[in-house]
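hiii so um. not sure if this is the right channel but i have a protein structure encoded as tokens and i wanna go backwards to a sequence. like what aa goes where. can anyone help
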């Protein structure tokens, strides 16, 4: 090879070196992302009290008319849908409670938050996906954020205690301060932050109560404090903020004359049942004893006009719920406002969720603001399963296989934000690929010119 050819070869190697040495996310600036969930915030809770801070988010960013959660409309399953982009039958966190039909073990919600195998059962949430692509993530009280997935834990996490006081506004602000430090001092790229209100108040007092209205005002004050802290932390131009929830809330008909009480159903006996998961709002699962499935189903299927009982294989496909090994052969749900009582009546909440996700009382909120979002945009309702794809696009990461569609929420982003991130299809490499990142046309041109010249002089 003559001397000019050698020089051109060296130049070609120099052009290639930066692209080979660094992944896409290191070659361009990246905005951070904060996902905040206020548990049980029904879609219209901002309509009967003043919420100036949530209103400001709508004016300065994106608001959905409402968001439809996944079914079953319970806290842990719906939160896991947000961070996996999967319907519940596909991610496997099918209930708030861990249960084992063989050992008969059932664990309450807070204990289940720390049960490794309940969460880590095949699906990889966005924290782990982001970390595998070079980012740092955090989870503050978010359901599922305190266990490892395929051996990998979230970079930083906090888990709420069993006797945690959900209502403490001072603690809410302290938690926000900690999250801001995670972004500014620890260099985190993604944080999921969870608040247990207004769910707790809605359960205790009911969704139409004055107590719930006051709690919504507390939520709104907290949103204002959060946005102030974002500005004071110097993150306003580099942090995207999404505020949403897991489900809504509905009033329980506690004094109805037609309560759903399985212990009063004629010809039904718990002696025919091997395992039961009842007395958890409007949902129930039954594992009949061997040979008793048909008998139990025939007794219960038309036992009460407010109760809907199905064999697992016949459960409505539109719910995307029953096709998982953790779901028992018989499952049921009740009409809006009715809970399912098992052996005795032990449910006394004034508000409840877990109902059909198509019902308006189960719909929830979606607000988003930040450098990547359009301003003053209200979008039509969408399913929560699509939020994951949006978050991956905001972070510039390639998502895991999921049930969402990027096209659903891509119109909420400014054009440059939508164009800058990699492709979200696992079958397609990220935009420009890791070797030739998008946004570097001069690199591509240089490579082509060098290759042509090298061919001529070699």
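sure thing!! here u go:
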């Amino acid at each position: 090879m003559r001397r000019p050819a050698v020089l051109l070869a060296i130049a070609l190697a120099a052009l290639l070196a930066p692209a080979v040495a660094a992944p896409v996310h290191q070659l361009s600036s990246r905005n951070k992302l904060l996902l905040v969930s206020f548990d049980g915030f029904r879609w219209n809770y901002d309509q009967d009290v003043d919420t100036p801070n949530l209103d400001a988010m709508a004016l300065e960013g994106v608001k959905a008319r409402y968001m439809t959660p996944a079914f079953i409309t319970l806290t842990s399953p719906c939160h896991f849908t947000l961070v996996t982009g999967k319907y519940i039958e596909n991610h496997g966190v099918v209930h708030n409670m861990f249960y084992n039909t063989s050992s008969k073990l059932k664990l309450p919600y807070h204990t289940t938050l720390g049960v490794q195998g309940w969460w880590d059962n095949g699906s990889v949430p966005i924290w782990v996906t982001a970390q595998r692509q070079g980012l740092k993530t955090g989870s503050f009280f978010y359901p599922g954020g305190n266990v490892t997935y395929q051996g990998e834990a979230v970079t930083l996490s906090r888990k709420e205690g069993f006797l945690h006081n959900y209502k403490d506004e001072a603690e809410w602000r302290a938690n926000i301060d900690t999250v801001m430090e995670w972004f500014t001092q620890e260099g985190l790229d993604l944080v999921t932050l969870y608040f247990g209100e207004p769910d707790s108040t809605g359960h205790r007092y009911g969704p139409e109560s004055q107590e719930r209205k006051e709690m919504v005002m507390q939520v709104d004050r907290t949103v204002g404090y959060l946005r102030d802290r974002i500005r004071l932390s110097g993150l306003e131009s580099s942090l995207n903020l999404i505020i949403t929830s897991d489900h809504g809330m509905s009033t329980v008909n506690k004094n109805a004359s037609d309560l759903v009480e399985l212990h009063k159903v004629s010809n039904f006996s718990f002696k025919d049942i091997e395992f039961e998961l009842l007395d958890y709002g409007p949902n129930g699962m039954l594992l009949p004893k061997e040979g008793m499935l048909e008998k139990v189903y025939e007794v219960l299927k038309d036992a009460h006009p407010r109760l809907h009982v199905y064999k697992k294989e016949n459960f409505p496909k539109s719910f995307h719920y029953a096709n998982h090994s953790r779901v028992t052969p018989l499952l049921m749900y009740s009409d809006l406002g009715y809970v399912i009582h098992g052996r005795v009546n032990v449910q006394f909440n004034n508000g409840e969720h877990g109902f059909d996700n198509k019902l308006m009382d189960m719909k929830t909120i979606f607000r988003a603001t930040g450098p990547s979002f359009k301003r003053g945009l209200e979008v039509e309702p969408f399913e929560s399963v699509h939020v994951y794809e949006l978050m991956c696009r905001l972070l510039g990461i390639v998502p895991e296989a999921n049930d969402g569609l990027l096209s659903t929420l891509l119109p909420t982003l400014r054009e440059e934000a939508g164009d800058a991130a990699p492709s979200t299809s696992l079958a397609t490499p990220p935009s420009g690929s890791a070797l030739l990142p998008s946004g570097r046309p001069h690199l591509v041109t240089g490579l082509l010119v060098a290759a042509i010249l090298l061919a001529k002089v070699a």
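oh and The chain has three domains: 3-23+434-457, 25-252+358-420, 260-348.
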